[in-house]
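Collaborator request, handled under Task 6.
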Amino acid sequence: MKKWSSMLLLCTLLGMLTACGGTGKEPEKEPSQADTSGQETEDAKEPETEAAEPESGEEYQSDEEGKKALAVYFSWSGNTENVANSIAAQTGADIFKIVPAEPYVDDYDELLDIATKEKQDGARPEIADIIENFEQYDIIYVGYPNWWSDMPMILYTFFDSYDLSGKTIAPFCTSGGSGLSNTVNSIKELEPGAKVLNGLHISDSASSDPDSAVEEWLENLGI
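Structure tokens returned to the collaborator:
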């Protein structure tokens, strides 16, 4: 009887030990730990990136602001060049100087004789360089001195050489006192497919400091 009681007690103890050893659980994964498929768990995934907003001081450009501009000019004495540089500085426009393939003389009186003959002959003096990718420009500032109440004939060469249809033209000129004369209307006749804006005239005496006049003109044009 004692023998059976001892065996029963031993079996009870063995059963208890087996039950205690089987209660342990496998540790859970950390949120950033990869699962058995090799992919990150949902908690570990980075959030999708959203479109960034402009930083402070940055604004989206409107269609008007996004237009590309070019300041094209011919200048014999440097007066028109001063105005062209001011326009480029205030608008960010690219700049192109019209240079004759055959340079004009330095003597003013002789120059007047040449200009008179070119006008009488309807001449088209050759331009030394070409404007690359002209089609990319939407706004063209066109500058020239007033010679005998007209543009120098090399400006007619420019208008003959490039297609300005659909572009906006803003003329500007310098002179001793004759103003724009009829040059704006001449440009309208030469470029019927373009939009020609009001022109700017700056006297030779004021051309050395044209910034204020240029700024006011640009504000009035609204471009």
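The cover message to the collaborator said: "Residues 2-21 form the longest helix (20 residues). The radius of gyration is 40 Å. Please let us know whether this matches your experimental observations."
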